[in-house]
Amino acid sequence: MDKNLKIAVAMGGPGSEHDVSMASGKGVLDALNNAGCNAVELIVVDHEIKVPEGIDVVFNTIHGTYGEDGEMQAQLEKLGVAYTGAGSQSSEIAFDKVLSKEKFIAANVPTPASEIVDCTAGLKMPVMDLPYVVKPPREGSSVGVHIVRTEEEATAAMEDAIKYSDDVLIEQFVEGKELTVGVINGEVLPVVHIAPRSGFYDMSNKYPWMTGDGGTDYYCPAELSYEETKAVQDAALAAHLSLGVEVYSRVDILLDDSGMPYVLEANTIPGMTESSLLPKAAKEAGYPYAELCMKIIDISMSTPRC
Q1: Which CATH number does the domain housing residue 168 bear?
Q2: At CB < 8 A and 24+ separation, what contacts does 30-33 make?
Q3: Structural domain for 185, as ranges
Q4: Which of 42, 197, 241, 261 has the fewest CB atoms in 10 Å of its CB?
Q5: What is the per-residue pLDDT across 92-105, written as a single tens digit (0 to 9) for each?
Q6: pTM of the model
Q7: Catalytic residue set
Q8: Same domain for 100 and 71?
Q9: 53 part of a folded domain
């Protein structure tokens, strides 16, 4: 990567993941500057990015709303400013769990059975048999996600989910290991096993420093057989390709007891602190944190986007 490039690290954003994004952004900013790059902080507070004069590329660390759903990417494309990660169209598809599910099914990517419940006219309940998972389609970091085992839990979960969206994604509940796999420029990284100390990988277990409780253990590479590892990595790459995602992503997968992987989603702006999951896997693959950040810039600058 040309270290003379002037880089603006975009962080924050208007969504529910603002604080997580700030942590990612500050990590990337420090790593780039410590490696001798010319990087500056660019805090985004609303739905408009104001790029300083002379910036060659924006390093996007805004998770969720605005930064991951294609809105900011579209604005940067109009401004003619280069940026890291997926393009506006693939970002929109990957961020929307309903659109992603359609792409997965069309490409024969293994994914849990699902239904969409339209609550535009008021609360409706799923017809899928319990247990299942309730998800708002366009939120990140497990916001509004509930594992439902009883009718009472189902009602409460649906009432919470419709705070975020009129349409709600319902997925078959799959019991298994929670795994995640990074893909960078077509290279599949080692599998990370996510082991929450209680419950599932929700906000409290992902970010105990934010919520004050919860916690998770991570194992990289995951202790899987060769066959399981290959099946999970193949599913991750197939999911990444089915969405047309440029540059990089991190694909979340459940592996059931029979060794069958089920793709849940692809994150186009995954966590980017030094201890986040993608950097953990990249380090295992031989890319230290600062090198990973520079590699993402390098690939992004030479990748056409749809």
Answers
A1: 3.30.1490.20
A2: 31/274, 31/289, 31/290, 31/293, 32/7, 32/59, 32/290, 32/293, 32/294
A3: 94-110+175-301
A4: 197
A5: 999 999 999 999 99
A6: 0.92
A7: 17, 141, 207, 250, 252, 265, 267, 271
A8: no
A9: yes
